[in-house]
Each structure stands twice: as structure tokens, then as C-alpha cells.
Design brief:
By secondary structure, the chain is mainly beta. The chain has three helices and 18 strands.
């Protein structure tokens, strides 16, 4: 009988502890369709050793920086040239040419990222995508059917790399009182010439909306305009380069660095001389 009395004395004490710990944060379970769920889920079992007292807690996975963080865009010095010319019919055009520095084609990451900003989704041509024929000893030859070009209708060079310029050209009709429309179209012509002693080492490609055209040392652009604005139209200009033990910095580097392009307008002669630097990536 003494045991029963002691038992009843202990029970209130146990109940008091249960109520006390329940109020202090023990999980409270609610029945729902015979399945017990906690209002605050229990932490999963783990075998990891807890961090030392006072150490900095690990960053939660959701707050950790992503592994494939975006790489900042490459910063380059674009050269933009704007000038005007008037043709033999009296139309005045504003011509804008935007050019990148010379960049080696073998620096694929750099030239690829620069081309992505102006190429309008067109593929960047490689050494073998300019209509050139490759021969033994890194020799390349090409013929271009551009009888109107002042020079450079051929390509002939020994090379194992190329310098690239990528850019765009835009044309605007500024003739007061005379606009171009679909019923009254207009056209003009401009050239970007490489007046070097070796124009045969230069090849260019213009990406019109419906076709591409390849030129030699003179890149010719012939806009057909059904409005007063045309472009921007992307282009690539490439100059041969040859690296070997005798020329570790490139056989043609000095020529590329010191030669200026000539921007020539229709019936207007040379509008601008343009020098372009080499960007070493």
C-alpha cells in the first residue's frame, strides 16, 4: 500500500516536468489521419562532428555563391569614325564605322566574346572560312571577283595565325528634302582600303542580311537603302601572321601596327585615315 501512495506522489511531479519542458520548446505533436507531424521538424540525424564553440557557422547552401558565376564582359577600346560624303547626284550620307582593335584569331576566347557583341548571331569565320585554299607549308591562296576594287583582289600569304578586326558599318541619308523609301530606294558605296605594300595578306568578309561577301585588301560596302538608315552591318577584316623562331613576335606585326586604313566615300575620295592598335590578350 505504501508503494501505491508513493506512486501517486511521484506522478504530479512527472507531469510538472512534462508541462515545464513542453512550454520550453519540446516538439508538440498533432494527430492528423493517424500520422504524427511536428510543428517544428526535428533535425535529421548526422554523424558530422559539431563545430568548436565560438567558430563561424557554415554558409547555408542556398546562400553560397553559384559555381558558374558570370564572367564580366571583356572591356576593349572600340574605335568609332563618323564622316560625311556627297555623291555625284547630290545625296549626302553620314557614314559610321566601328572597329575593334586587331586581335589574334588564336585567342579564341577574346575574339569570340568581342564578336558576340557585334556579330548579330553570325558565325565568326576561321582561317579556312574566307574562301582560301591551303597548301603545304602553311601557304594560303585566294581569288576574289571584285573588279571595282582599287587593289587586293588576291590573297597570297604564308601564315599560321591571323589578326582580326571585327566591327560594324552604318549609313544614314542626310539629304534635306530627299528621303529613301521602298518606292524610292537609294544606294551608295564606301571602301575600307588597306594601302600596304602587301594588300594580298588581307581578306575581309561583310555579313549582309541575305548574304555574305568576301573581299581582299579593299573591303567594299554597297548599301541598298529603302529608308534613310541602313545598318549596322557586321564585318571581319583579317591580316595574315606568321610566327616562327626567327619571328617569335610575328613576321607582320610591325606592318599591322603602323599601317592606316583609308575610308573612301563614293565620289568623295579619302574621307578618313584610321589607325588600329593590336590588343594582346
Amino acid at each position: 500500500m505504501k508503494r501505491n501512495i508513493n506512486t501517486f506522489k511521484v506522478l504530479p511531479v512527472c507531469l510538472s516536468f512534462v508541462l515545464l519542458f513542453g512550454a520550453c520548446g519540446m516538439p508538440r505533436f498533432v494527430s492528423k489521419d493517424a500520422t504524427y507531424t511536428s510543428e517544428r521538424p526535428l533535425a535529421p540525424e548526422t554523424t558530422e562532428t559539431p563545430p568548436p564553440e565560438g567558430s563561424r557557422p557554415a554558409v547555408p547552401e542556398s546562400e553560397a555563391p553559384p559555381e558558374d558565376s558570370a564572367v564580366p564582359a571583356v572591356q576593349i577600346d572600340w574605335k568609332t569614325v563618323t564622316c560625311e560624303c556627297t555623291d555625284n547626284e547630290g545625296y549626302t550620307f553620314e557614314i559610321t564605322v566601328k572597329l575593334s582593335p586587331w586581335i589574334l584569331q588564336s585567342n579564341t576566347a577574346l575574339i569570340g566574346s568581342v564578336w558576340d557583341t557585334v556579330g548579330q548571331g553570325n558565325p565568326l569565320p576561321g582561317l579556312k572560312n574566307f574562301g582560301l585554299k591551303e597548301f603545304t607549308g602553311n601557304a594560303y591562296l585566294g581569288e576574289f571577283s571584285d573588279a571595282l576594287a582599287a587593289n587586293g583582289t588576291r590573297f597570297a600569304a604564308t601564315m599560321n595565325d591571323m589578326y582580326y578586326i571585327v566591327g560594324t558599318v552604318s549609313v544614314r541619308n542626310k539629304t534635306e528634302g530627299w528621303s529613301f523609301t521602298a518606292d524610292n530606294p537609294g544606294s551608295t558605296r564606301l571602301e575600307l582600303r588597306w594601302p600596304s605594300s602587301s594588300p594580298t595578306k588581307v581578306v575581309s568578309k561583310v555579313f549582309y542580311s541575305a548574304e555574305t561577301r568576301i573581299y581582299g585588301g579593299t573591303m567594299r560596302v554597297t548599301p541598298s537603302m529603302s529608308s534613310d538608315r541602313w545598318g549596322p552591318v557586321p564585318f571581319v577584316i583579317a591580316h595574315a601572321e606568321l610566327f616562327n623562331p626567327n619571328n617569335p613576335n610575328g613576321e607582320y606585326r610591325e606592318e599591322v601596327e603602323t599601317t592606316e586604313f583609308q575610308l573612301v566615300g563614293n565620289y568623295s575620295g579619302i574621307l578618313e585615315y584610321i589607325s588600329v592598335a593590336i590588343m594582346d590578350g
